[in-house]
């Protein structure tokens, strides 16, 4: 029988496969953003959404060339819920896997994964190093600068917007 880990268990699993502080922080950030949207759109499953956000890059550090592919194997070995496995893998749609984000939660993950990276990059350039005083216009200005946070795919962010608009 598969299981759904608590958010803490998901973090512990993430730490098992990732030691880089950047990846651990990214997992926490995406988990938090997923929790925020879950409170609005799926309040009975907030912890599920947060666990998906925490685990979405489970394989990234150890298997960067098999990202979203190897994570499915690892999660199956850990007997995680099939919904978590599918959702986490779907954020690599069109890049490493052909699992299209279909459920609203999958679409949210797809959209926020790259976007949180861009927002985080903008925030650390600010004197406050925080998003608390960050304005949308600052993010948009940097978004339009292709060489800024070049690792954050503008194509995926744009595709995420399409996913989001279509719910």
Explain what the structure shows.
With 167 residues, the protein is mostly helical. It is built from 8 helices and no strands. It has one domain (7-166). The mean pLDDT is 89.
The count of domains is 1
Helix content: 55-70%
Distance N to C terminus: 31 Å
Q: Note poorly predicted spans.
A: none
Computed Rg: 15 Å
* Strand percent estimate: under 5%
Decide which structural class fits the backbone. Answer: mainly alpha
Largest sheet: none
Question: What shape does the CA trace take?
Answer: globular
Q: What is the typical, i.e. mean, pLDDT?
A: 89
Labels describing this entry:
mainly alpha, globular, 167 residues
Question: What is the topological layout?
Answer:
Layout: H1 7-17, H2 21-41, H3 46-55, H4 70-77, H5 82-90, H6 104-124, H7 136-143, H8 154-166
Provide a concise account of the structure shown.
The chain has 167 residues and is an all-alpha fold. 60% of the residues lie in helices and 0% in strands.
